[in-house]
Every structure is written in C-alpha cells, then in structure tokens.
Amino acid sequence: MLKSPAVLVNNASLYYQDKVLFDQLNFYLAAGQTTCLLGMSGIGKSRLLQLIAGLNTFSASVSTCDQKGLAGRLAYMPQTHALLPWLTILDNVVLGYRLRRDNKPYTQARELLHQLGLGDVINKYPEQLSGGMQQRATLARVLLEKRPIVLMDEPFSALDTITRYHLQELTANALKDHTVLLVTHDPLEALRLGHHVAIMSGEPAKINHINCDLADLPPRSLNNPELLQWQAKLLNMLQELK
Amino acid sequence: MAPFIVLRNLFSNRITLLQKFLISLWSLKLTACKKLFLKIYPLFFHKMCIPVWFIMIWEGLIRILQLPNYILPSPFAVLQSLINHAGLITSQTLPTLAEILFGLFFGIILGMAIALSMCLFRKLHAFLLPLLLASQALPVFAIAPLLVLWFGYGITAKIITTIFMLFFPITNNFLDGLKQTPENYLNLAKIMNSNRWQVLYQIRIPAALPNLASGIRLATAMAPLGAIIGEWVGSNQGLGFLLLNTNAQMQIDLMFAVLVVIFFLGIFLYFLVDTLLNRALPWTLLKSS
Lengths: 242, 289
What we know:
The complex is a heterodimer.
Chain A: E1 7-16, E2 19-29, E3 34-38, H1 45-53, E4 59-64, E5 74-77, H2 89-93, H3 95-100, H4 106-115, H5 131-145, E6 149-153, H6 161-174, E7 179-183, H7 187-193, E8 196-201, E9 206-210, H8 225-241
Parallel strand pairs in A: 3-7, 3-8, 5-6, 6-7
Antiparallel strand pairs in A: 1-2, 1-4, 8-9
Helix pairs in contact in A: 4-5, 5-6, 7-8
Chain B: H1 2-44, H2 50-65, H3 75-84, H4 86-120, H5 122-137, H6 140-151, H7 155-179, H8 183-191, H9 196-233, H10 239-248, H11 252-280, H12 283-288
Helix pairs in contact in B: 3-11, 4-5, 4-7, 4-9, 4-10, 6-7, 6-9, 7-9, 9-10, 9-11, 10-11
C-alpha cells in the first residue's frame, strides 16, 4: 500500500507574458485523496499543475507533509500526446523505466494492460488506437510508475461521453489512496471523482475549496440527486465568476 | 390571327418534340460515350502510362518539327544506342553509383553529426550557422575544380562534392526536428527523472526522425547531381565523364541513353531509400491514414 503524502503549495506566484496569473497563492492537496480543480480555460489551472510538478520557472514553495519533497514521487497524465508515437504501447507503458535505465517490468506491464483491456494491442503503435484506448494506456503507465502523487491535466476531455464515464470510474478505482490533483473544466467530473472540489477564479487567481459534503465516496454514481444538484450549483458559481 | 397562332403552337410543339427526341438520342449517346470514357481515361493517367505519354510526345515533336537526329534523336534510336552500348554504359555507371552511395552515406552521417552538435552546444550553433550558410552560398560548380585539384581525378573528389551538396538539407531538417520536440514529451521525461542524455537519445532524436527522413529523401534526390557535377569538372570515368565525351563527339543518341540511365538511377535510388525509410519508421505512415 502506498503512503501518499499531502502536498502544500505556499506563496505561489506566476507571471506569464506580463500578466499576473496568480500571486501569493496557497493551495493544498489532501493526503491519499483526490482534489479536483475547476476553473475556466486560461485561468492558469494547467500552469499551477506544472508549477507543482516543477516544470516551469516559478516562485513557490511546494512541500509534502512528510518533508520528503516531491522529487521522484510524481506521475503526470496529460490531456493528449501523452504516448510517444514511435514506441509500441508496451514500451510506452514502461517509458519511465526506459528513461531511467532501470530494469523494465514487462511482465507487470503486460498484466496491467490486460487488466485495462488492452491485452490485444500491446504491440501496436499509439496512432492505431482510439482516444479512449490511448488514455487507458497512459493510465497504465501512471500506475506502473508507482508514484504516490498523480497530477492529471484534463485527462478525459478529448473523449466521448461514454468512454469518459467508463474511464473516470476505472481511474478513480485504480488511483485509490493516491494523492491526486485532477484539473478539469467539467463540474460533473469533479463531483464524481473528487474527495475535494476547488474552484480557481479571478485575476490574479485565487482558489476556493467548495464544501460539497457528499456522503458516498468516489467514483460516485450519477443516480445521486444530491450530486446533480451540486452540479447545478457549481455551474452557477462558475457562471457568476465569469 | 387565330389560325396563325394555332399553326405556331403546332409548329413549336413539333419543334419541342423533335428537340426532345434529339436531346434524348444525344444524351443516350453521351452516356454511352461517357461510360466508355470513364472506363478508359484513368488508364491514361495511370503512373505506368506516364513514360508512354512522354515517349509519344517526344516522337511527336520530332515528327512535327522535323528535328534532325543530332538535335533530338528519336526514342527508338536512343533505345538502340542503349542496347548497343550496354557494356560501356554499365562500366561507367558503377563508379557513379559508388560515388552516389558513398556520398549519401557520409553526407547523412556528417549532416546528422553537425545537427546534433549544433543542437547540443548553443555556442557552436552561433558559430557554425554562418559557416553552413556560406558553404551553401558557394556554388558546387565553383568548388568542384578545387576539390579535383586537391584530391585528384579519383573517386574521392566526387564523393566529397556529393557530400558537400547534400549534407545541408539533412542538417537543416534534422536540426529543425530536434528543436521542435513537443513540450509534453519533455515534461514527461522530466517528471520521470530522466537525465539529459536519455532525453536526447530516447525522446528528442526519435521525435526528430521524421524530419531527418525527409532530409534524407531530399538528399537522395540531389545525390546523383553531386556525383555527376564532380565527374563533369575532371574525371576519367563515370556517367558524367561519358556525358561530356559523347557531347563532344556529337554522339547525341548515346548521350540521351546516358541521360535515360541517370534518370532511372535517380528514380530507383529515391524509391529504394523511401521504402527503406518507411520500413525503418513505420509509425510515420500511420499519421496520414
């Protein structure tokens, strides 16, 4: 079982093309739970995610509650172009091990791909797969990395509704006990998958945690009328912020 | 007036009937023609028909303009010359082919090496770029005699001319590819704790391979030109040498035969390299489909 730490972001500031995206921003990700970050496009959600991952030049202190730091404990799941087109699915799934020149856990990768229903396509190239299958392969890679903190940047937004619904469930079950940040623009997705929902808004942006108090645990069923009421509420909030 | 109107109506009625009949007959004929035409005309544009067209136009030009044999020999004369001098042409093709292949091989290696070093070391980039551009601004024709002077009449000077001609498209395309690695891939590698060399070897170079392939295709198309220019300025063998000689001796039909050989050599090389590249990079074919 993974021990996933909480992640704290303090005093994050980011300037992008002479625009203050956010200044003195504080944010936290609860340990072993999924936090969904909502907000309009262009507000800086993805930038915040990249900031946590240490991908852009930034000024912030990002720390974990167990003081071990983030290095080597992150996995990243982008929206598109997550798989390298010149590698087969199997090689894409063990990409992290290839890049670190570790022993490649092919047997484990095969098992994982079989579990995710990709057993027949392990030797195909990503271009030969549908969008949903590609994202499943990306998920397999994230899982194989065995890292306690997972950052997901709109991972399902390029998929059709049915595929998205299925993949949300799959992902939520697979990433139980991970500390997850899921950036999305879909309130329903946030409500289904998040233990916590936060909205990013304003200029410079601030983050407000929304206290939803939904009884059941993610992935939540859509049959819950409370969930749908909250979807309406969140939509209203997002509209007002606009 | 009344009978006149009746007559006119009757007449115009007749006309329309006749017209209808004629039109229907014509359209019937047209559809039959059309069908035949639709069946036959793709054959004319089939790629195997292009040489046939070319030869027909060639022969037609000679017939119409009454061109003498020493201006433009007929396709048949060229074919005959090709058969009569098969031994000579083959013996002269081999050195040229060797020059092309060696030039291509070393040109690709040189082009890749320059692109990689320019990509890795920023300072070298600023230093090499003007040099590269200068090398391309100088016409190969001007440099080739110098190379013959330095490296003699042998095969070396021709290989160097060929390399000189084709390394630049390779460097340029490969460097373009190396600079344009999608940010997502680099982010992934960074999060996966990859070091710089692994990023280069496993991400940046493979991502640039399609660009390198198009550079190699371009270089392949240019390679015969480099070799023949090299032979043109000073040699005692090769197709370029043969071209020069036949021209001087007014053996125009043989000269055309050599041109035909160069033409097919170029096409064959290009398709060979194209096929090999597609085999080597199968994923690049998936995107277009």
